[in-house]
Amino acid sequence: MDRVSNQVRKMIVSKQLKVSMTEVSRVTGVSTSQLRYWEKKGYIQSEQDDQNKNHYFSLPTIFQAFTIKLFLDQGYTLTMAVKKEQQRRELHRVFERFITDCILEIKQTGEKEGEIKLGPLADDPTKEVYATINRNNTSLHLRPLNNE
């Protein structure tokens, strides 16, 4: 993974990126009063400045608020919207784990084309799985493992 991608990933995971409540409201369409209520109920969390006046939200929390609102807009109750968001977040954690554990190398092979090396096959460690991405599709492949 290149250095820029690694730094961005660290910034997001470490929750260093913070956004004000007003900006979260503007971006997500969730009113500041709703955000305060959701925070009071424990559905989302913010950090406050030294004077406990301004609320700041991490990027993952912004996605939480946005997703809860999407479920509310689909007609779910707040309780069910929060539950569905928690389920979505758990699936995201599983996917994030896959990305972290399995993507060994990404390389560009052409304009808007690339290859992602996913590592050895569990049942046959002499072969590796890789994905090719081109303009038309993404596909998975097997090849002999090259132990350079």
Automatic annotation (TrEMBL):
* Stretches assigned to the HTH merR-type domain: 20-83
- Protein name in the entry: MerR family transcriptional regulator
Xref: InterPro entries:
DNA-bd_dom_put_sf, MerR-type_HTH_dom
Q: Which domain of life is it from?
A: Bacteria
Bilayer-crossing residues are: none
